[in-house]
Amino acid sequence: MSTSFQNGLLAAVPNLRAFAMSLSGNASRADDLVQDTLVKAWANRASYQEGTNLNAWLFTILRNTYYSLMRKRRREVEDVDEAAAAALKSPAQQLDHLHLQDLTEALQTLPPTQREAIILVAASGMSYEEAAEICNTAPGTIKSRVSRARKRLAELLDGQHPDVTDDGSSSGLQALAV
Predict the structure, then answer these.
(1) DSSP one-letter string for 155-169
(2) What confidence tens digit (pLDDT) does each residue in 118-168 have?
(3) What gap in Å lies between CA 16 and CA 23, rounded to an integer?
(4) Are residues 17 and 52 in the same domain?
(5) Using an 8 Å Cβ cutoff, are 51 and 1 in contact?
(6) First to last CA, the chain
(7) Does 101 share its domain with 139?
(8) CA distances from 129 to 7, 123, 125, 133 (A)
(9) Angle between helical axes of 139-157 and 128-135 (0-180°, round to 10)
(10) How remote is the C-alpha of 70 from its chain's centroid?
(11) Looking at the DSSP assignment, which residues form a beta bridge with residue 170?
(12) Interval 77-114: pLDDT, tens
């Protein structure tokens, strides 16, 4: 079991890192999460049942490790002189709900095949090949659908929400369309 288990761990690293990046938003933290996950998986390899989904087991370990670290960090105090806390400010978010509503409405106007393709690729972060497999079509078809969907979303959202708000922060809505 150890050779196939070890090969399975190595094969899962890129997907684990991508998942860790989506959770933490930080490359260094993502690498630490993946490392912690692999160490825990190796230490508990006897509890893994061969023939079950190794990736699901690893992703569960990673997710649980991330949430445990987040709970721990909430209790930590790093800013003793409160200089960092004083520098923090939060931009107004009153319009975020409306921006999301506009994006949702724009997505609903897309043909179902384009909507499905852009959600799989742009929102879910899947590769064109993965999305093509899910949609039972060629990767080139998915690329075309995503391109058309992005173009149409850009047209629908153009002028409704500028890329930069009055306070200088990015609205983030155009990210899906661009």
Answers:
(1) HHHTTTS-SB-TTS-
(2) 989 988 888 999 999 988 999 999 999 999 999 999 998 886 544 444 444
(3) 11
(4) yes
(5) no
(6) 46
(7) yes
(8) 23, 15, 12, 6
(9) 100
(10) 17
(11) 164
(12) 666 667 766 677 676 677 777 888 888 888 899 998 99
What is the C-alpha separation between 45 and 27, in angstroms, rounded?
A: 26
- What is the rounded distance in angstroms from the CA atom of residue 96 to the CA atom of residue 99? 5
Structural domain includes residue 147: yes
Q: Determine the angle formed by the axes of helices 139-157 and 96-109, rounding to 10 degrees.
A: 130
Q: Which amino acid is at 74?
A: R
Buried b (16+ CB within 10 A) or exposed e, 27-43: eeebeebbebbbeebee
Q: Give the helix/strand (H/E) hosting 88.
A: none
The closest alpha carbon to 33, from 81, 6, 1, 70, belongs to 70
Amino acid found at 106 = A
Query: Is residue 84 included in any domain, yes or no?
Result: no
| Same domain assignment for residues 166 and 126 | yes
Say whether 91 sits in a helix, a strand or coil: coil
**How many helices (DSSP H) and strands (DSSP E) are in the chain?**
9, 0
Residue 161's CATH number: 1.10.10.10
**pTM tops 0.85:** no
- Number of domains observed in the structure of the chain: 2
Give the domain extent around 166. 96-177
Task: Indicate if the alpha-carbon torsion angle 154, 157, 162, 165 is positive or negative.
Answer: negative
